[in-house]
Specification:
The protein has about 375 residues and is mainly alpha-helical. Helix content is about 65%, strand content about 5%. The chain folds into three domains: about 1-180, no CATH class; about 190-240, no CATH class; about 315-380, no CATH class.
Length: about 375
Amino acid sequence: MEMVSLCRVMAILHFKIVMPMRWLAGNTHFLGQCGIDWSPRSMGKAIDALEAAMMVIEEDGSKYLDEHFMNNIFSRIHSDSHGNEIPLQPLVDVMTYQYEHKQTEAIDGSKVLPFDQLNAELFYPQRQENIETTETVNLMAIEVAETILKELRDPRKATSDYLSSKEGQFSWGQTTDDEHGAMLGKIATNDPAESPFASLTQQLQSFGRLLGIHASAVGHARINGDFNRDVDNESNSGAYHRLSPEMRESLMKFALKVAPAVRKSEKTSLNIQREAKQQKQDQLRKKKIIAAQLEYTKALTYVDMFYSDACWRTKTHAQRAFNNLSSTAARLNAVKEQIRIRVIGFGWNNLHHPWSKNGVHYSPADLLKHLINNIIPQQNK
């Protein structure tokens, strides 16, 4: 049942959060170009809305199965002429189309609304195996919300820069009217930067023995439309076909002339890159070997300590040695060392005890209790 519950949780996550966010990110420039007051900085409002929704779900997991609540996560990310918070209408229209108009052909040949049927089973399940997951889904939803909030707010990650609650530098709360206006119609994703790599990968996968420079050239030519040709309107053709016949011939002759030198340079650069990569791998391997040697040496030291008088071998010995120490600091260090002897020396990692929890340090007595009740008894097994 756990796997069915997880599928239900992830499906809701995809259709109610991921799908709207992806559409917004991918169409931000189109919205701005169409005169809608939405820029890449406006995505900060969507992030803020997601954070607010996750905070509610964190407190009440049942909200995750509330269709009205989930449908309205992004219902206040836009503003009308009076400054009132309203839904972004193009997003509403797209989601409406997906659920209420987009049809596909079923096995029997009939037309159905697949997203609508899925949505109904996710929030109003009819199948018994789905009905039985409701309680588990509520619990999982809380974990999902906690995880998303942790990731969003992590200062080490870029997402925190888009949160108004964290005063992120790219958040909507820190965006000026000038910044927002200047970015209207601009792309909110890194698609232009990734497209050449995708084209390069596609070429290399299709033609395994193709040189990297050739694969890259094909990708760039496609993206730029250099060799596109419009027979009806030559002005729409790519750069190559807009050249005069003499210029095209000259360009081809020049390319053929410099091709050997370019290939040689590419091969040299590639070899240098491979050598640098190999050197890094060798250095990393050496560091790992040294680290392993140091770790092994440390473990051997603790093994020797176990078979020396420094080790508290029995419960009685441990209690007596602990009581003979006068200061709290001495007791704490001694008990920690006894735990390290077993954990590091013999690799009993499952018997390790943390030194603190939630910023509060465990007392020497707590650690001694763990040593006596959990670790020492293992020595006789």
